[in-house]
Amino acid sequence: MEIPPGFEVKNERNKVCLLKKALYGLKQSPRAWFGRFTKAMVSLGYKQSQGDHTLFIKHSSIGKLTLLLVYVDDMIIAGDDETEKLALKDKLATQFEMKDLGKLKYFLGIEVAYSKKGIFISQRKYVLDLLKETGKLGCRTSTVPIEQNHKMGYEESAPVEKAQYQRLVGKLIYLSHTRPDIAYAVSVVSQFMHDPRETHASS
Fold it and tell me: Where does the Reverse transcriptase Ty1/copia-type domain lie (predicted)?
């Protein structure tokens, strides 16, 4: 800890700071940590993406690329420069408490599998948890995500809990990252987020 700017004491050696509140868990803690992390990444030659501020990019002089994506306290390091990736891990470990979990297997509800043909991503566990949450674990599968020539509107049906409906649609939107085939159906049900009805929830 450091004495805050503007606080002047003649004999600082005999003074101590009294901690009235834990630093971890404060509202400004994540912002302060990310600010420090950003400075560390910039000092290592990385540029912060303007499209996504949690993405840091570094191009080497030999045309290789290294990427780091951070979400809260989880990080993914990817790229074709193996030397730079190892150096980045070592340098970050000197400034932050870190643990290398090896190859990426699971990140934000997305499962990652490796094969000779390449990388396969899916959200199988995410879908199963979603079906369990909505009580549809034993439902029958359908070849199409939504009925053809549907006419979904504001039919006379009972309203459903708005927050629960919005949360469910939000999860479906996230699922469409790996399941683009449901994107249209999700866009239809998301039109009724401000006044959801039973007909919208059961579609």
Answer: 2-147
